[in-house]
Amino acid sequence: MPNDPHHNLTDDDLRRFGFGDPLPDPALIADLVDANHILFDQGVVDAFGHVSARHDKRPDRFFLARNMAPGQVEASDILEFAADSEPVNAGGRRVYLERFIHGEMYKARKDVHAVVHSHSHAVLPLTISKTARLRPVFHMAGFIGHEAQLFEIRDHGGTGTDLLISDNKLGHALAGCCGDQDIVLMRGHGSTVVADCVPRAVYRAVYAELNARYQCEAMRLGEVEYLTPEECRACVESVEPQWHRPWNLWKQQAFNHRESARA
Predict the structure, then answer these.
(1) Given the DSSP bridges, would you call strands 50-54 and 62-65 parallel, antiparallel or unpaired?
(2) Where are the extended beta strands (E) located within 23-107?
(3) Least packed by Cβ within 10 Å: which of 150, 155, 167, 181?
(4) How far apart, in Å, are the Cα atoms of 99 and each of 137, 152, 214, 260?
(5) Which one of the listed residues 80, 98, 104, 240 is annotated catalytic?
(6) What pLDDT score does 1 carry?
(7) Catalytic residue at 223?
(8) Whole-number Å distance between alpha carbons of 188 and 120
(9) What is the rounded average pLDDT for all residues in the chain?
(10) How many CA atoms lie within 13 A of 64 on its CB side?
(11) Long-range contacts of 152-161 (CB under 8 A, 24+ apart)
């Protein structure tokens, strides 16, 4: 397995990086760093997009990188945020404008322990089409359910916003649109995926992008056969518990690519 420095984190490292008590499990921070690298390596995020994790010792707080490209995130870049989505240990470092996506999802959903927000290329056309919505077409994407909800920011911020979820009010509205589903689309913007752990959130973000690609390709061929709600539930129950397989593979691939870039 990869041997990046963040895989050997200690409590002393976390304190040196500015984390306070109660300290999170170092493995959670390592997973969050890996998630950033994997999402970039898999093409789900580029210079923009972000992934967070709920604090394992303080459920009213969460962890998210400072304002930077996901592919460059290291453990020292991870910040802690309070329930109002404001940082508690930024030390003057810039934070993401859309941190409210994460904070409000955690407030609304006690079952959510990880959130991924992205502008992935295949998903975005399905946020602006007036005739098609993201729907599951293969067994790896049962978490989409019958159809992903579409968040229309104009309903909550008017017709002159920059489409960003830049305050708690808009974050609350987005979480409300998502409801109890695991993915919500955002018109002209992208998507937000939630899960009970960081690796599963990454799994869903990657396969949402693949599903969108397959769906758009199939739609060009004619009428599409989508999964039934019953098939969706069965796929989630049987396939998703194997998230460790792609997670370990993607982690190794991302590490190898980073090592090649350093050479």
Answers:
(1) antiparallel
(2) 50-54, 62-65, 78-81
(3) 155
(4) 31, 18, 30, 32
(5) 98
(6) 52
(7) no
(8) 11
(9) 97
(10) 33
(11) 152/187, 153/186, 153/187, 153/189, 154/187
pLDDT of residue 3 exceeding 70, the answer is no
How confident is the model over 144-199, as pLDDT tens digits? 999 999 999 999 999 999 999 999 999 999 999 999 999 999 999 999 999 999 99
Read off the tokens for 233: 């539930």
The contacts found for 257-261 with CB under 8 angstroms, 24 or more apart, are: 257/41, 258/4, 258/37
Q: Which residue has the tokens 């460059």?
A: 72
Q: Are 191 and 184 in contact (CB under 8 A)?
A: yes
Q: Which residues pair with 185 in a beta bridge?
A: 150, 191
> What are the residue ranges of helices labelled H in 140-197?
154-157, 168-178
Q: Running DSSP on this structure, what letter comes out for residue 87?
A: B
* Side chain identity at residue 168, one-letter code: N
Structure tokens at 238: 């049987």
Contact 196, 136 (CB under 8 A): no
Residue 9: per-residue pLDDT: 96
CA 47 to chain centre: 14
Q: Which residues of 29-49 are buried (b: 16+ CB within 10 A; e: fewer)?
A: bbbbbbbbbbbbbbebbeeeb
